[in-house]
Amino acid sequence: MHATATLKSQLQKKRAELFEAYLRQPSPRRLLKQWCAVVDETLRQLWSTHDFKQDATLVAVGGYGRGELYPYSDIDLLILLPGQENGFLTQRIESFIGTLWDIGLEVGHSVRTEAECLKEAVQDLTIATNLSEQRFLSGKRRAQQELCQKLPATLDLNAFRAGKIQEQRQRHHKHHDTAFNLEPNLKESPGGLRDLHTISWIAWGAGLNPGWASFTQAGLISAAEARQARTRWGFLQDLRIRLQGLAQRREDRLLFDYQTSLALQLGWQDSAQRRASEGLMQAYYKTAKSVLLMNAILVEQIEARTRPVHLPPVLLQDPFVRQGDLLGTTPGTLLDQKPELLFNAFLLLQQYPDLRGFTPDVLRAVWRGKRHINAAFRSNPVHQQQFLEILRQPARTADVLKRMNYLGVLGRYLPAFGRIVGQMQHDLYHAYTVDEHTLKVIRNLRRFALPRFNHEFPLCSTLMQQFDRPDLLILAALFHDIAKGRGGNHAQLGRSDALYFCRQHHLPRTDTQLVAWLVEQHLNFSAVAQKQDLSDPAVICRFAEQTGNLRRLTALYLLTVADIRGTSPKVWNAWKGKLLEDLYRLTAQVLEGEQITHDEPSTNRQTQALEILKHYGLQEVSEVTLWKTLEDGYFRRHEIRDIAWHARSLQGCTGSSKPRVRARLSPVGEGFQVLIYSPDRTGLFAHLCEYFERSGQAIVAARIHTTLDQHALDTFQVLPHHSSVEHYRTQLKRIENELQEQLDHPGPLPTPRRSRLPRQLRHFPYPARILLGDPERDGQVPLTVVAGDRPGLLYRLACVFLRHDIDLHGARINTLGERVEDVFLISSPRLDNPTERQCLHDDLLHEVSQEQSPMPTESVTSRT
């Protein structure tokens, strides 16, 4: 035991010494080699002390086998047996592996004979890959050499290469097919180290010696490209080494927690224009793009060498030819020599959708040829029309624009777009860089136009497929965030950029006005839908006046849905979709001449609800007991199907002193809708918020109503925080029973728990804002709370309302990633007093700012 502790201490000391030496004189190759040698020596020493002799062979495989061992990475080992193991050998192996863990080495190991290795390699791509990078450590060297020689002959190498290519596609898809995540994985993300490893594996599967020098000798890349590849690889290795040094564990994710420290280590400094971490990340994204390009070129070239038959090129449009399923030119370097043909190449990819992409020579030529895109190129009317034609093509628009961005062409042609390439967004909302988000918005718009995706967003698909100029929507999407990072209002600045582009490209005046208006207004649709009362005709009429006509409304709705869907996989939910669709339909009615007023008789809506209730045995309005306790405002603010559900659920128990809870699947298609009917009492909303927080349900909307006989009639839309294996009926029954029990036996409200601040908020604190608006026509005061999100925040706010004797009439809970922008309708006689209003404002600001200290807060003065 003492020897084990000593060895563990020695390893820790040696690792620390290597890190210290590395920071003084960074050399990834040297550190990886040195640490690998330390582990080699340790393993050989322990192997010897366990007295294996010639009974087994110790082999390094995987990353450790190729000598690329990071200080906190797993150590992959194969214990190669000459035959079936016996009990005595098994005990020694178990003791050996246990000792490795005891001294602090994280080991992944397998124990197999040669025959078992070959059999498993045929069946499992991961095992085959690990064995392709094997290295002898100790034991019987000849056994390892024989396995190494037999492996390629045993495998179907064509299937091996195809499997690695498919594996890469799946890995890229897992990371949303982008290198531009804000917290990328240095190893697994597109453009990361694994893409470089894949090149080596495919080369091995083609019978080539992996390595940049070997690739140069084989004529796959030039010496200059090999130098560039080594530089990119070294940069990624450097980041991974430093990242593990900071984390003091195996860590491959470039999290916000480490970005600033890494940037400072590497010499970036904060400035007035950008953070040090933004400089680091832009360097990373540039490297990732280069790695993706190198991967595409080399994988394609290696695969071309293995094809038994080389089909002759087929002329498509001189000088462009089809080479198999790739687009080529004659000669292959032509686009570097004649950059005026660059846009022709991308147009042909759209016009021949069966083409998978460019040949390696054309990829190189496009990458080099982009340097010719200058002011003269941009002002050439032919190039301008070609670019507009790319936007107008019915197929592959999003795909081609993404290729243009990765190859650097898009940023060269649109310099304003070039400035947002790799631009970070620290708004707790977006998960991607500005350019990647923009391309995802364009992709979403294109999906609306394709009938095979009609099931995703039926209304959007119908509207997009009927819209006369979808290219204008693509153009607006391209410019909607183009001015981010400059300071000021990015929508206004983006409008100016869009106007300049449209005039430079000679778009008609009406098209120019639509594009510029969409860019300027692209935030307005979601703001109205998610923060204002859509049951108020004044809100709808005002928004209809702002949009002006149905064509503009449709265009803005489509852009808004595509925009929100492109921010992050976590932001969109069905409730947001319903609010946006409701605003579109209501505004369209006004623009088409239909009048909507506050004074619609409640009997009209009762009659419509009764048509639903007739299926449940209620034939006359007079039979519905609940409606006798409700005033007109209830019928105006609730939807017909909810009015019917309330009436059906509470028939026979109206006026009861016993609370009643009912839950159902939400009609919007996601989450649950929960109805609470109870004698009104102080603190009811706080009790409900506390229950939903404790039970893991996120409130996304609440309608609070008090009947004429002083009963609370509250409806909540909730979404589970986590997916559940329970059947939905079981979940609904559990919510009903638990909430019923809490309402039947209410206890004192617990003190709000101190919750852990989300990681993003710790590194990018968001300024909290509180805005108390002017009383509306019914005396209710709109209250807006903008703050970083965290568990239990809504319950904290409910407790503040309770302390200030605030009556709550409605809540719109708008969660944007790690940020909330909630709107409440409140009332209280105390709000007439300016001092009381300020006290409420300060108390709310203090509550939402807790646990974020130190954090700047922006106090918005209440309007009186």
Please write out the topology.
Layout: H1 2-24, H2 28-49, E1 57-60, H3 62-65, E2 75-81, H4 87-102, E3 107-113, H5 114-123, H6 125-131, E4 135-138, H7 141-154, H8 157-174, H9 193-205, H10 212-217, H11 223-247, H12 256-265, H13 276-306, E5 314-317, E6 320-323, E7 326-329, H14 334-337, H15 342-351, E8 357-358, H16 360-369, H17 375-379, H18 381-392, H19 397-406, H20 409-413, H21 415-418, H22 434-449, H23 458-466, H24 470-479, H25 490-504, H26 509-521, H27 524-531, H28 537-547, H29 550-565, H30 574-591, H31 602-613, H32 632-637, H33 640-650, E9 660-665, E10 672-679, H34 684-694, E11 697-706, E12 711-720, H35 728-744, H36 759-763, E13 769-772, E14 781-788, H37 793-803, E15 807-812, E16 815-816, E17 819-827, H38 834-849
Parallel strand pairs: 2-3, 7-8
Antiparallel strand pairs: 1-2, 1-4, 5-6, 6-7, 9-10, 10-12, 11-12, 11-15, 13-14, 14-17, 15-17, 16-17
Helix pairs in contact: 1-2, 5-6, 5-7, 8-9, 9-13, 11-13, 12-13, 13-16, 15-18, 19-22, 22-23, 22-24, 22-29, 24-26, 25-26, 27-30, 28-30, 29-30, 31-33, 34-37, 37-38
Task: Name a few traits of the molecule.
864 residues, alpha+beta, Beta Polymerase, domain 2, four-stranded mixed beta sheet, 17 strands, globular
Give me a quick take on this structure.
Helix content is 54%, strand content 11%. By secondary structure, the protein is α+β, with helices and mostly antiparallel strands.
Summarize the structure in words.
- Helix 12 (256-265) packs across helix 13 and helix 31 (602-613) packs across helix 33.
- With 864 residues, the chain is α+β, with helices and mostly antiparallel strands.
- Helix content is 54%, strand content 11%.
